[in-house]
Amino acid sequence: MSAADVFAILWSTLVDLLGSAAAATLLRRAARKARARAPELEQLQVVRERWGYRYSAPAGWESQNVRETPALAELVVSELCPILHDLTGPLVLRRLEAVPELEELLVTRSER
After folding, report:
1. In terms of Cα–Cα distance, which of 86, 80, 76 is closest to 106?
2. What does the domain layout of the chain look like in residue ranges?
3. Of all residues in the chain, what percent carry a pLDDT higher than 90?
4. Angle at 12 between CA 91 and CA 37, to 5 degrees
5. At what angle do helices 3-18 and 90-97 cross, to 10 degrees?
6. 0.85 exceeded by the pTM?
7. What is the pLDDT of residues 48-64, one digit of tens each?
């Protein structure tokens, strides 16, 4: 599964749990904080369209798996997970960990 596919699942799971506005806000905040360590996150776009939000992942993510995409781990593990924990405690993180497609990404969280 490509990094872009994993990000799509992360996006849809966060939207289901928190709503599109909150998911967009939290991902933008996490990306902004992680950009210093992962410049390719400049290509991650989360924009408002009419009544919702859409994203576009960095182009290289289509051909890379999660382990080949350290920027995705920086975004999710180093920035997004701590934000989610601060705001929701372990609730949302447990829900993300229950999604099989996110397991490979989130396993790096326990390695850090």
Report:
1. 76
2. 3-111
3. 89
4. 80
5. 140
6. yes
7. 998 899 999 999 999 99
